[in-house]
Design brief:
Mean pLDDT: 78
Shape: rod-shaped
Largest sheet: 3 strands, antiparallel
Distance between the termini: 93 Å
Order of helices and strands: HHHHEEHE
Number of helices: 5
Length: about 180
């Protein structure tokens, strides 16, 4: 009789183990825990790419607007000197004005804006003016693993000069490379 009980216990233990093996409760939680890190990495990567693309697009727009303003030698004589739009300076260089067109604090504070004259440095009509805007961007996902990884988003626009900045039309503001903000390569 003791042998029969022992056999029944083993058999019931086998049945219970078999029942548990067929039970799929908790499987979804395990699968979710496996997939969640990859999903979050992809989600944050897409969000980060959107921010990089937005910064690059802002820099491109500022370079294009600045090149056009330099080509016709007309831009506002006052520009925003900080992200706070109520603070303005007296007269500003083309580089300062282009920098003031960048709307976010990160872009405004860290942007490098340079004017280059590819045609022998002359500002005569028919020559080219090139505006270069560089904005540093630190990639958070990369910084989590490798300290200090930053990229420079570069944008430039080139246009033909239409009005001589040394001419007597209106009140021209001289365009020079002396007012470059930072170094642009």
């Amino acid at each position: 009789m003791a042998k029969a009980r022992s056999h029944n216990r083993r058999r019931s233990l086998r049945l219970r183990l078999a029942d548990r093996a067929r039970d799929d409760r908790g499987v979804a939680l395990v699968e979710f825990a496996i997939i969640l890190p990859a999903f979050l990495l992809i989600l944050l990567g897409v969000m980060d790419f959107g921010k990089v693309f937005n910064y690059w697009q802002s820099a491109t727009q500022a370079a294009s607007t600045g090149a056009r303003a330099g080509a016709v030698d007309r831009w506002p004589t006052t520009c925003v000197t900080s992200v706070n739009p109520t603070v303005t300076s007296g007269s500003c260089t083309l580089q300062q004005w282009v920098r003031s067109q960048l709307k976010t604090k990160e872009l405004f504070n860290d942007a490098h804006v340079c004017v280059v004259f590819p045609d022998t440095g002359a500002t005569a009509p028919g020559n080219r003016i090139q505006l270069r805007v560089q904005v540093p961007y630190e990639i958070p996902l990369v910084n989590a693993f490798a300290k200090g990884a930053a990229v420079r988003l570069r944008s430039s626009a080139t246009m033909r000069i239409e009005v001589d900045s040394n001419g007597a039309i209106g009140t021209p503001v001289p365009i020079t490379t002396v007012g470059n903000i930072g170094t642009c390569t």
